[in-house]
Automatic annotation (TrEMBL):
Family annotation (Pfam families): GST_C_2, GST_N
Organism: Aerococcus agrisoli
NCBIfam families: PRK11752.1
Protein's name in the database: Glutathione-dependent disulfide-bond oxidoreductase
Domain GST C-terminal: 135-264
Record-linked PANTHER family: DISULFIDE-BOND OXIDOREDUCTASE YGHU, GLUTATHIONE S-TRANSFERASE-RELATED
């Protein structure tokens, strides 16, 4: 492999060819084509995909249903990020950052858009009064860990997952770097869960939903083929027990099995 010489100013190579792919990466934001997204009858309109970030919201909504909340019916529409659905005009109006999941609450006037999975989890928890403690200590601890996942997750997905599973060639330096960080995070969770049932203590919260969708699925072998063995996930016994415990929750299984409707 030849050494990369860093230019003074970065330019996008093969721009003309690569820009033909509607779902491909570009160094610019915004919509790429006209789009009309379907809108169902439920108050909550969810546009998502079954990725670690995407599954958080169906799980949250099913957990709220299990708690007896009656106002959480939702329409779930599939946004195929491989085909570039997230760059259509209607989706960009909901989330200008062109990432899933995105939610519209039609019960608000005017309809309210919510994007970023952590923001959606917090919005739903506060709107319906569940899965986030009301006391200052419990609430703050829940937010500590919710924001920890939002900040740490990209090292696992965009870092470890990309270079271990998706990059066109295996490169030792980035794999070593992001494996080191992923294992450090797993060790942190393992130490945290040594004396508590859930991430923030004895109570299941939105922090568990957010973290399980990445780290629980990772140790259960549901992310990145071969990564569970590579990361020696069985050595994180507390994380593994927690991951299995949450995986057995009926609402979690319902969220994972939620049916996505086509947008066209």
């Amino acid at each position: 492999m030849s050494e990369y010489t860093v230019p003074a100013v970065w330019t996008w190579e093969n721009e003309a060819e690569e820009s033909k792919n509607l779902g491909g990466n570009r160094p610019t934001a915004g919509s790429r084509f006209e789009q009309t997204l379907p809108v169902g009858d439920a108050d909550l309109q969810l546009y998502s995909l079954g990725t670690p970030n995407g599954i958080k919201i169906p799980i949250m909504l099913e957990e709220l249903k299990a708690l007896g909340v009656s106002e959480v019916e939702y329409d779930l529409f599939l946004i195929n990020i491989g085909k570039g659905d997230q760059f259509g005009t209607d989706f960009v109006k909901i989330n200008p950052n062109s990432k899933i999941p995105a939610l519209v609450d039609q019960s608000q006037e005017p309809a309210l858009r919510i994007f970023e999975s952590g923001s959606i989890l917090l919005y739903l928890a506060e709107k319906f009064g569940h899965l986030i403690p009301t006391d200052i200590h419990g609430r703050t601890e829940t937010l500590n860990w919710l924001f920890w996942q939002i900040g740490s997750g990209p090292y696992v997905g965009g870092g470890f997952g990309h270079f271990f599973n998706y990059a066109p060639e295996k490169m030792k330096y980035p794999i070593d770097r992001f494996t080191m960080e992923t294992k450090r995070q797993l060790d942190l969770l393992d130490k945290t869960l040594a004396d508590r049932e859930f991430i923030t203590g004895d109570t299941y919260t939105i922090a568990d939903i957010a973290i399980w969708s990445w780290y629980g699925r990772l140790v259960l072998g549901e992310l990145y083929t071969g990564s569970a063995e590579f990361l020696d996930v069985d050595s994180y016994t507390n994380v593994m027990e927690w991951a299995k415990r949450i995986n057995e929750r009926p609402a979690v299984q319902k969220g994972l099995a939620a049916e996505y409707k086509a947008i066209d």
